Every structure is written in structure tokens, then in C-alpha cells.
Amino acid sequence: MARRVPRALQPLRHEPYRWLFGTLVVSMLSSGLLIVALVWQVVALDGGPTQLSAVASASAIGMLITTLLGGALADRIPQKRILLGVELLQAAAIGFIAALALSGLVEIWHLSVASLITGLAAGLYYPAYSALLPSLMPAEDLLAANGLEGVLRPTVMQAAGPALASALIAMSSPGFALLAAAVASLGAGLLVMGLPATPVRRELIDTGIHPVVALFADVREGFLYMIRTPWLLATLLFASVMILVMMGPFEVLVPFAIKDIAGGGPREHAFVLAAFGIGGAIGSLAVASFRLPRRYLTVMNLMWGIGCIPLVVFGLSSEVWVMVVAGFAMGVLFSSGMVIWGTLLQRRVPPALLGRVASLDFFVSLAFMPLSMALAGPVSELVGLRTTFLIAGLAPTLLAVITIVAARLPADEIAHPLDVGEEIELDSAGLAPLKE
Questions:
Q1: Domain assignment present for 207
Q2: Which of 91, 185, 260, 413 has the most CB atoms around its CB within 10 Å?
Q3: Contact indicator for 249, 98 with CB cutoff of 8 Å
């Protein structure tokens, strides 16, 4: 009698997904290496929170510039080509600053420019990946596939990558960690070549319109869909404000809380990121192992809101182990919510619009990220680390409750169930018919 494959591993039965899975592993390793390498390269150049804010915000600005275009492209050209171009561009940009760092010629502005380029590339990646995934497997495996991505992101990008970067920095320098990130991006590009050539899931009609005009028309169509879909609009608005409040403190200020309050360094920073990653992996695997919750919108938004509360710890505690526990709790809740969200988009958004809606998700969620990154350093210097972390930790929970009540999300999720295994015919707005 054949063994039953655990629900969370069922996507790996499909060979095309196995290639995509391998690509994700190596690509996320590169991202994890880059996160820590950039932070401590800034520190090695005697930079502080303001300089790190500039480098981090450059990446977010790059993503904002290209993400809407990326969604339109993902609905028009094979996503495999986009993923390959992204990995090669990132490998070139990171490799260049690695060479500068190893030769002792790197400056803060070099890091900002490279961060901008990698952000431009990343803005094209997410919409293409999101549009490609549903074409590689049946709908009933999507929750598990998003769960596996959720496991990879924290374990590889937030744990293994930072841990490896920390070890390379301790052995040599941040420049050596940057070089490893460039090699990993190149490896991810080679793995992309193994993906099948999958056509876009959209019927393109030649209207005689100039391609550039057609792309802008596609972006406009995606915006209109978002505005006319209450559950989507409400969740994206909440996510954008939440990111404004908490992302800058988490990305920019946590390393300095570890250094200035707890007396730690790169190793302790890697411990916190690893705990975040392990918690995220556990949360993602747990969600992927069960059916989508019936109250999926309510559960998802509360997970994100409550998941910010542990940020308060970074302002109040001087113990590294307490910060590690806080990072773990954040990872569990944030990644669990992301698994639900990715599946929700792929189940409720029409295939012809999925690339553009995924890009809007990325765009709206990131809209305030550059501002959050840029403000984190100056605000902390003005009001102090403790007050900044207190606001970042508590405000999102209140915002989550307001979103759930104001947008009537409980009524929407009950009226439009997405139980795994239940075939639901969606209308043009991605809504299931109301049950009698």
C-alpha cells in the first residue's frame, strides 16, 4: 500500500514545481546573505541608522518603480523569462559591489545604488512568480505550495542566509558575504532554465494599440479590479499602513537595538533573524498542513496585527534571548498570514488578472516602505528607540480590528468560502456565488 504524501509536501509531486522550488531555495539564500551583508558593510564604513535607512529605502524605491510594470508584463509574456532576467541582473549588481568591497573601494552611495538595482529586479520577480505558480499544479495544492514558500522564506532567507553571512563576515569581511550572495543569484538563474515554458493564462487580442500604451491600460485594469473588490482593497490598505508603522523599525532599528541596548553584534542579529525564520517556518508548515480556515480574512488580518506586538520587546528588553523569542513569535504570525494571503489571491482572483493583482499587492504593501525606512532612523533619534518600538508594536493590532469591522470581512468570508477540495465557480470579480 502506497504511503500518503503529507498535505504540506504534495506540491513536490509535480516536476515543474520541483524546479521552481529549487530556484526559490537558492534565490532566497542570496537574499538572506544580502540582508546581513549590507547591514554590516554599512557599519564597517562607520555608518549609522540614517545611512542604513538610505541603503534599505533604495531597495524599496526600486521595487516600487518596477512592480506595477512587472504585473503587466507577467500577464503578457512567459514568466520564466522574467525570473531569469531578474536573477541575472541581481547577480551582476551584487557582484559589482562585492568586488568594490573586497578591494576596499566601496562607499555608502555604492551600496545605495546596488540596493536600488536589486530592488528594481525584485519588483519584477513577485508578480511573475505569483502568476506562474497556479499554472504548475492543481488548485487544491496551492495552499501547500504557499506553505512551502512560507517555510523557505524564513528558514533560508531569514535563518540560513543570515547565519551563513554572519559566519563569512566573522571569517573574512562583509564583502565576502556579498560575493556569496552574487554567486547564489547566478545559481538561481541557472535553475530557472529548468522550468518548463509555460504560456500566460490570458487570451491576448491584437488591438493595434502601441505596446507601451497597452501596458499602461493593463495596469489601469488591475487598479479598477482592486478598487471594485472590497476584501482586496481593505486588506491592502491595512497592510500598507501597517508596513509604514513597523517595517522601518524592524529592518533598520533592530540591529541597533541589539548593538546599543543588548550589547550584541552580527552574531546576535543573526540569532534574532534566525528565530524569526524558524518561527515563520513552523507557522507556514502548520497552515499548509490543514485546510484554509473558514474565517480566512479575519484570521489573516489578526495574525498580522498581533504579530507586530513583539516589537515592543526590542525597546524594553536588554536581554538578547528575549529579543530572540520576540523574533520567533513575529515569524510564526507573519508567515502564517502570508500563506493564507497568497492562496487567497490565487483562488479568488481571475487568472488573466493574477499578475497585475499580485503586482498591486506588492505595490500597495510596499508603498510606504521607503518612507518607513527613511523615517526609522530620524524618528528614533527624535523620540528614542523605546518609544518608536512601542508605537510600531501596538498600533497595527488596533488597525487590524478596525479593518475587519469597517470592511465587514467576516460577512464576506462566510459568503464566499474557499474550503480546499470544494469546487467553486468564481465570477469576474473573483467571488463565489452566494449559498442559499
A1: no
A2: 185
A3: no
Q: In this structure, is residue 235 part of a structural domain?
A: yes
427 inside domain: no
- Among left, alpha and beta (phi > 0; psi -120 to 50; other), residue 421 is left
Tens-place pLDDT, residues 420-436: 444 334 444 334 343 33
CATH code of residue 59: 1.20.1250.20
Domain interval for residue 48? 8-196+212-415
In a domain, 1, yes or no: no
| pTM for the predicted model, two decimal places | 0.71
Structural domains in the chain (count): 1
